[in-house]
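Example S7 (structure tokens).
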């Protein structure tokens, strides 16, 4: 099983074993579905979403996966990234630290020449993380919910 390490964090493939911890971020049914989808993505494509751990404690997740259908402004076969850190662990640099590791790994595992992310315009925290990671605004888009988002892109080094 792959594992990434940073100074403070460990990233391991997000799997059904993380469903209970992941449920702190969403309804339990969604957490179970998404962790199963993550395991399937890893099995099929050799890359996927990561659980972000401080020691053994689940602090968030780092998404890396094919975008799939339903996001305006992003092609379904583009590799999408995203990040969520639990409220108690925000403003500690975990999202940036975890995503630097996940992105560095994504270039080789996914073979992508660019990565995309979509961010709601009022999400100042994620906009700061995207800026620190080097993403630039590609244009407007729509989340699966229909909400307007900015679509950001990061080209391979």
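Recovered sequence:
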């Amino acid at each position: 099983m792959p594992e990434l390490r940073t100074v403070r964090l460990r990233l391991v493939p997000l799997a059904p074993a993380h469903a209970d911890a992941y449920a702190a971020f969403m309804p339990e049914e969604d957490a179970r579905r998404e962790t199963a989808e993550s395991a399937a993505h890893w099995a099929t494509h050799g890359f996927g979403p990561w659980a972000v751990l401080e020691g053994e404690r689940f602090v968030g997740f780092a998404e890396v996966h094919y975008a799939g259908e339903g996001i305006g402004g992003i092609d379904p076969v583009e590799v999408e990234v995203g990040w969520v850190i639990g409220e108690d662990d925000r403003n500690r640099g975990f999202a940036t630290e975890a995503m630097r590791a996940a992105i560095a790994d994504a270039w080789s595992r996914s073979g992508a020449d660019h990565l995309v992310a979509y961010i709601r315009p009022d999400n100042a925290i994620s906009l700061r993380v995207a800026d620190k990671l080097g993403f630039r605004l590609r244009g407007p888009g729509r989340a699966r919910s229909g909400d307007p988002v900015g679509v950001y892109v990061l080209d391979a080094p």
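Notes on this example. The CA atoms of residues 89 and 124 lie 16 Å apart.
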